[in-house]
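Lay summary. Proteins are chains of building blocks that fold into shapes, and those shapes determine what they do. In this project we predict the shape from the chain. Here is one chain we studied, written as its sequence of building blocks.
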Amino acid sequence: MVLEKAIRLVDLVAEGVETLSALATASGMSRSTTHRLLATLVEHNYLLLEGKKYGLGYRLLELGEAKRRNLNFLDALRPVLNKYATLTNDTIHLAVLDGKDIVLLDRVFGDRQLRINSFPGLRNTAYMTAVGKVLIGNLPQKQWQTFIDKIPADYPRTAEDIMADFKNAQRNNVAIDIDECNFGTCGVASSFQVNDRLRVACSINGATVYFSNNRLQELGAVAKRMAIELRATLDGQMPNVEFDTKAVISAR
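And here is the predicted shape, written in a compact code that computers can read:
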């Protein structure tokens, strides 16, 4: 389809492929077809042409801002994210499922020397992340297999392990990842319902070096409390969330 080809070109430009010849090669399309589609994308401001190099157009920025306005609940949740980043010293993420991937909606850094290289809009394979696992675990069990159809041969966990992670997430609304999404990083996540259509995961993430002595497992309770507080915030409530500070203090 023409639309799919045009979207592929936008994705390639976003990945850093900039010239007509390189885009034609990477997309597998003829030079003439590539040029025609690029011209249409430039005409409608989805791409820019500067000299002989293509870049992302401002129309995408406009659409991104429109999408953010549709996610206006994020502004209400930011104080809670800041609170938990300060409390744990770790990076806090909010994420949603998008197909078989997760997409980060928001990120607040904690006060760590080593930080995860993450940003709103970042996409990762869902089953490789704590946020993805906890969101998948809240889906009907008959859908779980579709998320793990293509596991790399060198992946550190088996399909059976990942299905067990989904089952635990279904039971406890908590999931973890250790050296799965990126080597040397880990996270623990819980989730909450925003509305009838949208469920969001919240997570505590960081370099694995900061999560020794079973701290990741201990922080599961903290992640669950964060999810409860985020949901309560959307309801306009101010819950009195009591903490067992053992896991939090051991992180600092």
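What the prediction tells us: The two ends are 53 Å apart (CA to CA).
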